[in-house]
Amino acid sequence: MINFRLDGKVALITGASYGIGFAIAKGFSEAGATICFNDINQELVDKGIKAYEEVGIKAHGYVCDVTNEEAVNALVKKIEEEVGVIDILVNNAGIIKRIPMIEMAASDFRKVIDVDLNAPFIVSKAVIPSMIKKGHGKIINICSMMSELGRETVSAYAAAKGGLKMLTRNIASEYGEYNIQCNGIGPGYIETPQTAPLRVEGHPFNSFIISKTPAARWGKTDDLMGPAIFLASDASNFVNGHILYVDGGILAYIGKQPK
Ligand code: NAP
Ligand code: GCO
User: Fold this and answer.
1) Is residue 181 part of a domain?
2) In this structure, what DSSP letter does residue 256 have?
3) What 3-state DSSP class applies to 243?
4) Among 40, 42, 44, 72, which one is least packed by beta carbons within 10 Å?
5) Does residue 141 have its Cβ closer than 6 Å to ligand 1?
6) For residue 167, is it within any domain?
């Protein structure tokens, strides 16, 4: 019987007080996993714990800046002591800065790379040793359309997400023999606070994305739950180094001809 269940598994989803991470955590909980999440400050963690309680989930929430290696190592140790060894890691925490490249300060570029690429390295490095000892592990990196495509004003984000695609493949290559599978999810354009500025009434990007998406709609965070459960479960034990695009068909489509 193909096993999509996550019973008995401990999952850490970074930056999951809301948005995509929250939806993925909800799906994992429905599949039986114990949910651990972090966010960047106590206010967000408290907001997240309340939001999880409202959907019947007793989540373990922790304050941790994923770019801080010392804090991440302490987080993983604390989770292992309080909850258990992390079986499933979702590197979800991320930021974007939409600035034309030649106007972007190097410090802004570095900040995006730090959160979106360096942090998945740091957190993955922190959890892999225990996964090796335990004899299995699942790492899911939240990539992007920008792992494959560029567009104006998102140079740092595209560089980070392109790098995250290759970090995913390298973790898969280096640790596959320990029964650790590392894959990516590449969401299309999803309705979350991160894309809210692009979805304001009358914003040209709104109709543009609809014309570029065969599904002719923005994605919803719940659209990511099933793909994430698949990659977190034993059903994907021979899937490794794969980026699963959940984009309504954007990457397959030239775009609707203007009327
Ligand atoms: P979001 O709404 O901005 O949520 C991102 C979460 O990460 C927030 O809770 C954020 O906290 C947290 N975070 C940011 N920096 C952090 C740090 N240094 N340490 C810990 N937590 C941190 O984003 P989202 O739309 O749900 O996206 C989640 C992931 O999916 C991101 O990696 C994003 O790049 C990716 N993605 C999004 C889309 C989309 O269309 N929305 C599509 C493809 C990929 P704060 O509230 O403090 O910022
Ligand atoms: C943007 C958007 C995208 C989405 C997502 C697409 O400004 O182009 O924010 O980058 O967040 O990454 O997959």
Assistant:
1) yes
2) P
3) strand
4) 42
5) no
6) yes
Count the domains in the chain.
1
Query: pLDDT digits over 203-253, tens only?
Result: 899 999 999 999 999 999 999 999 999 999 999 999 999 999 999 999 999
In a domain, 254, yes or no: no
Phi, psi angle pair for 105, to nearest 5°? -70, 145
Average pLDDT of the residues in 75-83:
98
Question: In a mutational test of the pocket of ligand 2, which residue from 145, 153, 198, 250 has the highest number of ligand atoms less than 8 Å from its CB?
Answer: 145
Residue among 52, 157, 189, 245 flagged as catalytic: 157
pLDDT tens digit sequence for 175-184: 999 999 999 9
Tokens of 233: 């479960």
In a domain, 1, yes or no: no
- The CA distance from 53 to 62, in Å, is 15
For ligand 1, whether the C-beta of 25 sits within 6 Å is no
Helix, strand or coil for residue 52? Answer: helix
Question: What does residue 143 show for φ and ψ, rounded to 5 degrees?
Answer: -90, -140
* Helix (H), strand (E) at residue 184: strand 180-187
Measure Cα distances from 25 to 10, 93, 141, 157 in Å: 11, 13, 14, 24
Give the range of the structural domain holding residue 44, as residue numbers without chain letter: 10-248
CATH of the domain at 117: 3.40.50.720
What's the confidence (pLDDT) of residue 177?
98
Q: Which candidate, 68, 180, 73, 72, places its Cα nearest to that of 135?
A: 180
Question: Which of 39, 114, 167, 199 to mutate to test ligand 1, by most ligand atoms within 8 A of the CB atom?
Answer: 39
Does the annotation count 157 as an active-site position?
Answer: yes
Q: What is the crossing angle of helices 106-113 and 155-175, to 10°?
A: 30
